[in-house]
Amino acid sequence: MLNDQLIGVLFNEEQIVKCWGKKALLNELEFNVTQINPHAVEHQETLDVKISAPEACPRYLGRLIKGVNATAETPLWMQELCVLF
Fold first, then answer.
1. Burial of 78 (0-12, 13-18, 19+ CB in 10 A)
2. Judging by beta carbons within 10 Å of its beta carbon (0-12, 13-18, 19+), is residue 77 exposed, middle or buried?
3. Which of 10, 32, 62, 78 is 20 to 30 A from residue 4's alpha carbon, by CA?
4. Half-sphere exposure of residue 15, counting CA atoms within 13 Å on the CB side?
5. pLDDT tens string 16-71
6. 3-state per-residue secondary structure call for the chain
7. CA-to-CA distance for 82 and 80, rounded, in angstroms?
C-alpha cells in the first residue's frame, strides 16, 4: 500500500526518461492524457521549497492540497504503476 499524500504528477515522456532512464519500459505503457479543469485556490497557505540542484530541476511546480485522507487504501492501478518505477 502506498502511504503518500502526493496525488499526482504529470510528466511528458522525455522528462520521465531523464528522471528514470527507462525508455524501453515507457514505450510499453499505455496512457491517456487527462483533461484537468482549473480550480481556484481557496486558501493563502504556502509551503517553502528549496531546490538544492537548480541545474537538474530548472522548473518546479507544486500545489498544496488539503483534506486528503492519507490513511485511505491506495487504488490498485496506482499501486501497480508505482511498482513499475
1. middle
2. exposed
3. 32
4. 9
5. 555 555 555 555 666 666 777 887 888 888 888 888 888 888 888 888 888 888 89
6. CCCCCCCCCCCCHHHHHHHHCCHHHHHHCCCCCCCCCCCCCCCCCCCCCCCCCCCCCCCCCCCCCCCCCCCCCCCHHHHHHHHHC
7. 5
When pLDDT is cut at 50, 70 and 90, the band that residue 7 belongs to is: very low
Show the cell assigned to 79: 499501486
CA distances from 70 to 2, 16, 21, 50, 79 (A): 9, 26, 30, 24, 14
pLDDT for position 6: 45
